Amino acid sequence: xxxxxxxxxxxxxxxxxxxxxxxxxxxxxxxxxxxxxxxxxxxxxxxxxxxxxxxxxxxxxxxxxxxxxxxxxxxxxxxxxxxxxxxxxxxxxxxxxxxxxxxxxxxxxxxxxxxxxxxxxxxxxxxxxxxxxxxxxxxxxxxxxxxxxxxxxxxxxxxxxxxxxxxxxxxxxxxxxxxxxxxxxxxxxxxxxxxxxxxxxxxxxxxxxxxxxxxxxxxxxxxxxxxxxxxxxxxxxxxxxxxxxxxxxxxxxxxxxxxxxxxxxxxxxxxxxxxxxxxxxxxxxxxxxxxxxxxxxxxxxxxxxxxxxxxxxxxxxxxxxxxxxxxxxxxxxxxxxxxxxxxxxxxxxxxxxxxxxxxxxxxxxxxxxxxxxxxxxxxxxxxxxxxxxxxxxxxxxxxxxxxxxxxxxxxxxxxxxxxxxxxxxxxxxxxxxxxxxxxxxxxxxxxxxxxxx
Length: 453
Hints:
6-stranded mixed β-sheet; about 450 residues; 12 helices; Transposase MuDR plant domain-containing protein; Ubiquitin-like (UB roll); alpha+beta; 4 domains; Transposase_MuDR; 5-stranded antiparallel β-sheet; 15 strands; about 30% helix
């Protein structure tokens, strides 16, 4: 006899004080799996992969956390428990018999699995050498990782890396990138010349989100989520390019995020659907039901900013399934695309120019009416001539600027001599008597009339 266990999808995070927290996807609905007391580990992994439609090669991590009343004295500082064998499954189900507060936490993807191992400081092997083994201190590990940092940066796209490395090897690659970033910050390698810095970062290419080895280290996407890192990342990503999309992008509000996603879809010629939506976040998926493309964005607490938390930019659907992207070209989206192209001119584009630009640059045919409406959806500030600015400034300094009232005219028609009376009023003042339409008497109406005819 099995028991229903709630499954949560997300990632673990650890604060600077050592508190563990599982950040689930708020857009997901409640999901459960039926687990037996003696369920084999391979069977449980198969159930989870089937529930979330994961391939057999996708890195997967199963964990759970005991209830707070069982974590004394460490409390929230106690690390999550990993499920790696059938005995761990039996242990979790034994706890679940006593309390239903135990949830099965699912983390998948090379980067997410590597980040969890980095936070737990689990040993790993890279090449012919092991790191963080038994008896190795953090200082010794930092010195060993420091030896991996070379002199010449190397940039490679994710597509090429996936052709070379397997999924399990990508986990090691991300893990090494986190360790290199930690060693670079701990050993104050920022004082070295830029050409000597080699860090692994998350950047953009035509293929989507890619790991990039270079000089532009971005610690915010690798280690923790402190307030200082969040602020630095928000300030640098508030004006993204239409063809840029990666985890960690921040938008001014929800509408800016939706606008950017529509422009991104038109640029890359595909169509997406709104899978989950709530005030705290959105989950966008490819229009094809079999595609793995997915973007999850959430509202940053106590702000109006929207941040992209997780992305999966690889399309597993066919080209035919991505057709119909022209429907996302609303007049607001078209106005945003045309803003950057015509803002310098100081005036909005003509409808024929918009139709030609959308047809030539984006293969989107729009009507004249939609092209006529699009410039009015995005404000374009006029260009002020420098001569006029200098003239106004000199006039203001001499106190000769006079502001005249606007030009007005008397409206047509004869003005009314008496106001329009409200309901229940008449010229004599007081309450108007009701007149019956049946007997012509006063004080009642036809419905309440009791007079004989």
